[in-house]
Fold each of these.
Amino acid sequence: MFNYCVDPKAIEGLMWLSCYVTTAKHMSFYFSFLVVIGLLSLAAPLAMVFGFAGATASRSNFRIIRSLGKGYLAMIRGIPDIVFFLFIPIALDQAFEYLRHKVLCFDVTEPIRQGNDFVVCAAAKLPLNTAGEWVHDIYGFSLALLAFGFVFGAFAGNVLSGAMAAVPKSQIETGEAYGFSQSQIFRRILIPQMWIYALPGLSNLWMILIKATPLLFLLGIEDIVYWAKELGGIKTGVYEYPHPDWRAWYFGVLMIFYLSLTYLSQSVLDKISARLSQGQATMAGKAG
Amino acid sequence: MSSCFQTLSDYGLRSIGYGERLLPKADITLCEQFVLIGSGMIWNIYFAVLALLLGFFFATVLALGKNSNLSLFSAPCRLFIFIFRGSPLFIQFFFAYDLFVLLPRLGFDIDLGFFVVTVETRWLTKAWLGALIVLFFNTSAYAGEIFYGALRAVPSQDLESADAFGFTGIKKFRRIIWPTMLRLAWPSYTNEAIFMFHATTLVFFTGFPAWQQKGDAIYYASYFADKTFNPFVPYPIVGFYFILLTLLIIGLFSLINRRLNKHLPTNERKRLRFNKHNLIR
């Protein structure tokens, strides 16, 4: 980066450090912080969509849809989220490749599962073998994003269905008395009123989501955990910047990053909650 | 069926080092997957039960400390709770492991009077101790915050009645404050316990090595998923085991909940439900 960095072994102290923290690999490390922020900003809306669908389905009048919705919301309470993070990306990948194989290579008669192998024709591979590195990166990230959306959708669905149940029944009954249809009641009465009940749960969920982002590492994404391990490990003399085991320092930096992120979020969420409870007939509302 | 009994005796305790040494490699059967993943559950239960038992007491201390008027006590407790609740457990594992690795390899002799225990720092880099400490601190912080909230919610009339009856100090805490605090905190604490069991699945994905392939349930599940390239069998098996475990915890915690609520009139008793719209974590 700097001119004097040409021969890092000749320099010392702060100059050495300034060269060390601006290497190309460190730039990838800094970029991976943006990946975390990107994941957060995409996963949160996606989870809301999944959650809304789940919560609505669990209130459906059709039994099959209702039990599907309820099953979706219930499973996250019994099964650790890591199971889903490991399962969903590879399951989705195989499902996509299976479907593409059936459509694109219908003339191949050999079975896809051969013993311990999963064999699809070259045209069905996702991404294609000829695709560039960045396509693989985007594809991997999208699968991870879907996994996050699915898991946190189930959490959000629990919050939203709890909030929908908390809206006073008399409000719904009033709607019925005025001749609103079921969908009108849903859109005009239930949804606008549930947010205040959902807010504490959703804030909590946001904090859980922040703290789940390092799990990207498990999905094979080159995220901050990957780079911290990579950069912090012992570098012998053959490297340009030899240093002992610095992983504890790198993970210390990650700890500080996450602590500031959660601290910042908490203070914003407290402000929002204070604003929303103004004028409400609750203890918090009267105090404010 | 008899071969499945054979598998059970070969791999039933594999996760703690008994039985067959080599893991199944080819022609993996459903039975092998069930047995080995179930064997891994021993570790999940070990971590969660010990962390929760120890954490329960430490959490009470933290809650009391945070509630203290003296900042000498409250500040460190606040900081501890903030650090462990504000950062991801996953990062905590990595951070702790890398710190433990840096420690000099020493042996400390602890004289217990009747015999001497040698505590070695290298144990800290092993999952059974190092990861347990992280989980213990983590659950203490979460439960500490829950207990703190409950402590603040103990009705002031209860305290006034205690004063009126001449309860003071330890006796007031043990007989009046503590049971009420527990009763109020119990639904959230049940949540925390369930999440703790789920959190144990992270251990072997962080720095802590699964020595001689002695791992937890999800370690074996991902082993099978890698070997068979079929995720649709091992992961549902893990899910199945954890659903059973979760139901067991809910059953156990409801029994305790019933005892904590015993003195209340029946219409005021709260039945324990897995809290839907207030997942604490």
Amino acid sequence: MKKSVILGAMTFAGLAAGAASAGTLDDVKARGKLNCGVTTGLVGFAAPNANGEWEGFDVAVCRAVAAAVLGDSTAVEFVPTTGKTRFTALASGEIDMLARNTTWTFSRDVDLKFEFTGINYYDGQGFMVPKELGVSSAKELDGATVCIQTGTTTELNLADFFRSNNISYEPVPIETNAEAQQQYLAGACDVYTTDASGLAATRATFDDPSAHVLLPEIISKEPLGPLVRHGDNEWGDVVRWSLNALIAAEELGITSANLNDMAAGTDNPEINRLLGTEGTLGEMLGLSADWAKNAIAAGGNYGEIFAKNIGEDTPIGLARGLNAQWTEGGLLYAPPFR
Amino acid sequence: MSGTHAHTVAYVRDTMLPEQAPPASEVGPIGWMRHNLFSTWVNTGMTLLAVAAIYYVLAGVLPWIFQSVWNADSLTECREIMMETWGSTHGHACWGVIKERWLQLLFGFYPPHLYWRPILALVLLLAALSPVLFSDRVSSKMLILTAAYPFLMPFLMWGGTIWGPLSAALGFVIGYLIIKHGSEKLGELGAMIAGVVAAVIWWFVLAGPVTDALSSALPIGIEAVQSRQFGGFMLAIMLGVVAIGVSLPIGVVLALGRQSDLIIVKYICVGFIEFVRGVPLITLLFVASLLLNIFLPPGTNFDIILRVMIMMTLFSAAYMAEVIRGGLAALPRGQYEGADSLGLNYWQAQRLIIMPQALKISIPGIVSTFIGIFKDTTLVSIIGLFDVIGLASAIRADTAWNGIYWELFAFIAALFFVVCFSMSRYSMYLERRLKTDHR
């Protein structure tokens, strides 16, 4: 997720940003398919099912954009990317957008010449320990062995956290999440640290999840969101407002169940503007009037997508937390559709 | 004399004793064990230790393999069944994941209603290889299939119009005809250069428009399949077969080029071999997947699988060249001189005298390289292609199967073992068949 950026990737990303063709929106319409970069597999966020169809929280963003642009949520070519290939794939134009739980950071936005179009998941780095260790706070972890993915920002965050609290730790470097699960269960490390969503998903797979606890400290900010190439603002707007439409739909009470009723026209002018029965928002984006309706029809509003893929009723069981609407104490706050 | 002797000896046996069976402790399984396993105290001790170690491993592995759950839709369900049946979740495999995903592990995302095409391609591959591998048992008429296979395989796997593979084949035909009939007018070297140039012109300039025109006039073809849908063990076999099949001839040419007296040819070959051998395969794969994207003009659609195939082929060709050079170096000088004294020219000498012997010497090395490159195909998972290893992590990312680990790798290991072990056995068979010395 936060693999350190290879120097070469930066250089070439910078070189290619200028070379990539200007009108991604026109390209996608002409091609009739959206090329969307996803992970090669992350529980709850993107994974192919037994029939080879992609499912997950990030995948739903791709489908919503495809539905908004092309009116068909299945018109997506999912391009699996690894932590090392994702930025070059986007910079070189192999993919039109990247929805691969990528943390929005200054250098990625500014130096790598990408444009983050919003945040679809607020994550943060946490700790998991076995209950029998009797630890209730990360500050009690002095001298602990910690399983940590190498070459990621989690590694740097961990070092910062332990240094600022003046306690010591012994890192156990591991390569992938699957390896980390094995090492942690085998007792090779006392603590496993990665994004809180990843910890929850990992704990859910254990024989006895209740024997492990997530510590309350969240030691970093990991705003994850879709991104596009710098400099193609029309296309960036399409992706940004497709995501905002999903978030606004939840706030306005539009669900996949009542979508068709609402699209017939309501008393709420903002719903009407969003769903295209009033105003010309779709036209301004260069899309059809019912673009947002299609985006919402693809997988429901933000809340429905969350509940279906990573919410409390799934094995992953994430609470909304920071990802609740601003009206309910969370950080999701879509600008007005006006 | 005999009379006196008869009186001094009381009894003389005049018939042979019947042969007795050897003592039970010296023959059969017991005898073999006494001689090989328990001959001394040290041996006995080591035997007992080895038996204990084997028992320890099998006692863990066999129940894991056979006391396992096949009918489950998720890891959680597997664990529930294990708890009900054995009262513990440890030491039991959950093969439910293989049962649900084995087709995906074999074929990737290839459309299920077209599975017959990769299967047919595999069957045809075996048929096409049979006259080469078992030349003493299979009619050489099958070689026609072998020659057609390189064009048949892409057509079956990718589908689309039939004119693409046909026009690619036509390039070879054009080149061959020019070399065959032009040698009187142009001389041998001139004809060869003219043939190659004509074929290249056909492929890169003329074939595209001609194919397009033909496919719009006569649209014969089968459903096309995108490269992104390729995956699983099928991808490993496909990459492996192409890399193996193409790298051998390229390797032979490179090895000959390295020993050539033509200075430019020699240094081109040396430079290529040393460069490719000096770079890790994973670097070449990153070049194929990332850098080429940047250097090619935007919008160029250069198939990712084709790029990976080219890189893997070049990589194994460099190694192959060195293996074959080892075979060439092992031939005594007299073989070259013998060929010269018979009045054979360079190519005749290579074809009839040098190569058959050099290749025979190199068989173990060649097959090791084959097995190595076949296993290296799993590296493509790092650049985001879904081979078996990539699929294994994708399957683990499914909420139903997150946390499953050993079962997938055991299945993949079994697949690879079958293929690699067959290659190794075949190379031993080939060595026995070609053995002409009297050691």
